[in-house]
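Researcher: Please generate the 3D structure of the following complex. Treat every line as part of one assembly.
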Amino acid sequence: MAAESKLAPIRKGLLEFLVLKIVGAKSIYVPEILRSLAGTEFTTQEGTLYPLLSKLRREDLVQYEWKESDAGPPRKYYRLTDAGRTQLAELDEYWNLINRTIANFGH
Amino acid sequence: MQRISTTVRLNRSVLQFDDAANARLERYLTESASLLEGDPDPQEILGDLEQAVADQCTRRMRAGQSVVTLAELEPALGEIGSVQAPGNWTASPHPPHEATPRVLQQVSEGAVISGVCLGLARYFRLDVTLLRVISVLLLLGTGGAMVLVYLGLMLLMPYAPLVPGGTPIRWLPAKCRAFMEFLRVKLGVDRQGKMAATPPRVQ
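Model: Done. Output below.
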């Protein structure tokens, strides 16, 4: 697809927003985030997600806590901080705004 | 033949790797570390990745298998993927959207009549179809008085500059625009000039 080179940066930019949305819905660990993204346009991998989550944690938007699991070592469960919730609301609003703007330009 | 295995501590897990797998693992982790150069917190990410490798390999091992081989490690690393620094998309911050001034003006491209609804929709960030439906309902409900309101807005709202090479304008909006611009010149009200960011005139 010729448009792919233009679509890739859009997806890339939106991944962070989407991860905030997913983490905002419930306390979640990485394999679960990957599963919920699998099969969508935003299918991604641990190699991408861990650096992104680390960045979000440094920005104080997400935090994690260790939880014991039935099998294997404890897992890191991520959730949004208050600042993360505020930013997610802002992003959500802006995203809706952009969508309306684009829709209003017709074809 | 003897398979020498190495005990590797991967974050919170301890696993046995055979020589080939151990070498591959080291290569992956070194590569990841160099990809994370410049990241303020590479240790945390590397720790997470180590744990991911351990979990993925454990999941792929047969019951009773004690040593990880390339047969488990390769697909595990394939699933984890190489490190992508998120810095790529934070490097160019977008200008805040408040910076764009909101101007109430008629939009000819994609308009039905003159672009009043489209202009109002953009200004108030509403769905244009919704505004058009409301306008038609008001037209019917007010027994046609809405026509005057529309004509008034047509006269008062300046026209948005046309986008060069943009969407072609339909016949009616084009005629409306041409007529209103003609009328404005006649009446001596050049709203376009007033609204546009013209440099202040020297008195």
